[in-house]
């Protein structure tokens, strides 16, 4: 495997960043994960737009023009011979002597890109079974709209899920409403067939997959309510599912040990998953 690190394509095993990189010391950086399908990035434009937004919110410079960044992403995918999988990119505020204040504005931001293959059959097998989730208090900071690499609450929540035999953790706010998963957006389908997902302005990351799925839902003439839902409502739901670039739509069949519906992935989650790539923009 090959990784791109600040201008060089290096063997993955030798690809390191400096000990005084601000990403390493402060979590002072942002990232994106983009699906690769048939050798092309899915929704590249939207991922790069979100990257620019995250960088602007943190006042970190774009390490290179977007067109050049696209070339680096494609070259990393090519050098790793990824047909189906993921490309990961991370930008930090760069390398400087440890000090909380921003470094000299001339400090170049750091850019790292990796890519790896994922067997689509395996991902489909997971989706075919459905996943279990647990719920945990949402103890994150208020700027979860920024896709920062500072993911310690998410790491702890997902590890707790794993230790409970589940795959994802759903964060729950102080009023008992689900915000989102540790690395996914959260959805339910109510008894009367309405899709429910939390508004993007309401304490979640605006998932690219979430945005595309809203378009898929509209095309399939599904009724959607963008509003918060409680854990109790989710437990009683007909279906539940998560969305992300790595999971597309994947059914949730258990919440804190309680079966959702009949414990099998539901028709809505399946339809959204099957139709996703008709609406996502691949190769742009
Ligand atoms: N919410 C969180 C906290 C995430 O980390 C992610 C993806 O990593 C998502 C939602 C889903 O976003 P996307 O659909 O853009 O992958």
Structure description:
It comes from Ancylobacter dichloromethanicus. Acts on leucine, isoleucine and valine. Belongs to the class-IV pyridoxal-phosphate-dependent aminotransferase family. This is Probable branched-chain-amino-acid aminotransferase. The longest helix is centred in the first third of the chain and has 15 residues. The chain has two domains: 117 residues, D-amino Acid Aminotransferase, Chain A, domain 1, CATH 3.30.470; 157 residues, Alpha-Beta Barrel (D-amino Acid Aminotransferase, Chain A, domain 2). Helix 6 packs across helix 8. 30% of the residues lie in helices and 27% in strands. By secondary structure, the chain is α+β, with helices and mostly antiparallel strands. Strands 7, 8, 9, 10, 11, 12, 13, 14 and 15 form a nine-stranded mixed beta sheet that branches. A hairpin with a 5-residue loop joins strand 8 and strand 9. The structure holds pyridoxal-5'-phosphate (PLP). The site of pyridoxal-5'-phosphate (PLP) has 13 residues, from helix 6 and strand 13.
Layout of helices and strands, plus pairs?
Blueprint: E1 2-5, E2 8-11, H1 22-26, E3 29-37, E4 40-41, H2 44-58, H3 66-79, E5 85-92, E6 110-117, H4 120-129, E7 131-137, H5 152-163, E8 168-172, E9 178-181, E10 185-189, E11 195-197, H6 208-219, E12 224-226, H7 231-235, E13 239-244, E14 248-255, E15 258-259, H8 267-279
Parallel strand pairs: 7-8, 7-14, 11-12
Antiparallel strand pairs: 1-2, 1-6, 3-4, 3-5, 5-6, 8-9, 10-11, 10-13, 13-14, 14-15
Helix pairs in contact: 6-8
Bound molecules: pyridoxal-5'-phosphate.
